[in-house]
Design brief:
1% strand; two-stranded antiparallel ribbon
Length: 472
Amino acid sequence: MGFLLIIESILLMLSAVVSFYYHEISGDAFLISASITIAVGVIFRLLGAETREQFIGKREGFLVVSLSWIVLSAFGMLPFIFSGVIPGISDAYFETMSGFTTTGSTIIPDVDIVPLGLLFWRCLTQWVGGLGIVVFALAVLPIIGGNASFLFDAETTGIARERFQPRVTQVAKRLLFTYVAITSIIAILLWLGPMNAFDAVCHALSTASTGGFSTKQASIAYWDSAYIDYVITIFMFVGGINFSLIYFLFKGKYKKLFQNEELKWYFFIYITFTAVITIGLIYSGKISVAEDAFRTSIFQVTSAITTTGFSTADFTSWGPFYMFLIYCLMMICACAGSTSGGIKVIRVVVLFKNAINEFKRQVHPNAILPVRINNQVLPVDVVTKILAFIFLYLLILFMSFLVLSSTGIDFEDSITASVSCMGNVGLGSLSDSGHFGHLSDTAKWYLSFLMLTGRLELFTILSLLMPAFWRK
């Protein structure tokens, strides 16, 4: 935790540089925040100096990963508080947790008046959280001398990750290299369009991480540019692909990309929903120009399925049919091992294949019908874990509807907020204001917990709450 806080203090200093470059007084808030963060980080390192080589097991890995998101969000909210932009602790913590978990939901009613340094910090938190706080740290510093794989496995998501041959620290470095390369390409392409350098960098950070924070209140619609829409659409889609596959693509290993079953399903769902919404918008007369309908549809579909949360149109005004499709995408989401949230395509595919097998067993009760992914048989325990994950995911969503409703939020907004925060989407806006600022403190803290639970995919964070997990 000390190492992680020291890294965060460096990122805070980077944001201070941006603030001072634009002659903003918020730079002082970053300096104070960075000083407090590095001081606590050094104290943590000194306290743990004698035990830093101690073996880390699964329980310790789960604890470190969970604490990293909680503690770094607590220190990451300090610039908002010291600058006075978000004076309340509940609001500041919600905003920061939304950043680190790449949710993109906000309590700020008008981001156009927020200092540029703080806008950069919001996007930077998403960029770090997109790769994963611990994975990012493993790539930068040799934090753990023992078994770092428990940390890596506790934070990276999915059931069918492509495994590298080197040790975990080398895996983290390669993922970070791929991440930085994609972010740099996005920034350059956006800068070549109507965006200035600052907006291009911020939106590159948000796009690569599929986060969704923008420097403009109108989001991507502010530029009203087909070029910007298509560039961000392409790289949002890329952000929804398993980053291990993208790395192999950079290495020229194209077969791994085209043979991956999850990627094929991801593309199929993506194309199908885009086509249905495009045709529907044209024939319903909601958007008369075919190219506009296609561009709007593919952008919103990509934003929803990758849990980015950017918008160029208000899809809620299209009608309940289109809202239902978008919310389905917000729950299914993209590939495991990507920066997206939600259930993930691979789990939906396994659920579908297992259901088909159950129908076949009705006719052939003695048949052995395993679930296969990429022509490999999935172990029964993996299939069971997926079924448990989906059940828990839906159960927590249902419970969240009730919890949020009890705080005074109407039922429709309770559904919107729960699906948005649990899936780390940020696309669903509340009907009253379009932001979360008017919610009660209880609702904000609960939604912050929901964002963390969704980002760490349920088991990592919920395991810590089970007494049996801590028994020897």
